[in-house]
Specification:
Immunoglobulin-like, 21 strands
Amino acid sequence: MKKSKTAVVSVLSVVFLVSTASATHVPQNQWAYEDYRSTIGTVYSPLFGTDVNAEVGSSWNEPRGSADSAHGPHTGVDQSVAYGRPVGPMQTPARILRNEDLRSAGGLTQTIRYYNSTYNKLYYSMYMHLSAFVMAENSTPTLSDYTAYSGNSGGVPAHLHFELLDSLSADVGWVTYSSRVGANPLQHVTLGGQSSSTIQKFAVYKNFNVDGRNRTIYFDAWDSNSYVDPLTDVRLYYRTPGGSWTSTACYTVNGSTYRYAVTFPSTGTYEYFIAGRRKSTERWVLYPVSVYDTGELSTGPDLSKGTYGYKTVTF
């Protein structure tokens, strides 16, 4: 079955003198989430028709699990589509790498591999909780092909969980959390006809703006269920290049817009990252995301690791 996909302009913007960088190489044995690499490029929604604007039930990097559990943040985006809705590739050229049953870990799961010739780059998408596979492994679907149908396998209500992956260990499909490096879908999934309000729910942190005169960063931080459960604690960690990290006190939500304003102590160049959580019993999640592992407990990031991604701003 065939259906076309159309384009829409990305709504993510970061202004003033802001750039991104990584602190260190991502270790292979940790849960890793890539937030600043650009070699994937733009991709389409994996859904078709009006389903591209289905409600986002859970955002990428949304807090999951208790503060001192070994459960990391949400690794993908959940969209509340009905049982049996079509799913397809997010870009071309594409090849279906694996169709497998992960049972309680994700149900019927399909992994598709892509190639960006501009950067000589392989990357992947992964769809979980499917009801059926339409195309077999090693098939080469086009953008209009249906490769699977959404479902409720794995013991969950019907929805589509999708992930965009910067890399996949050994190119062998889903094995463990440590085998996959996720890409922030908010930065890449900008094609396919979904609305700006849908795209904005794809990730927890978004809409960064810098006021140079007031040395302030304004940013929105919420999960997909923000109207009832926003991030209630937010900390900024900053340093001058090569210096030691300093933590601000927790900032609380500002009204109904879930917007936080952080002011730096003086003019100059700073490196910074942000940590947030919805409640004291949850783990902290970070932006930008370079490495996430079992050290991010109720006490906050372990700064001795030195493995955090960060942004750079000059006032």
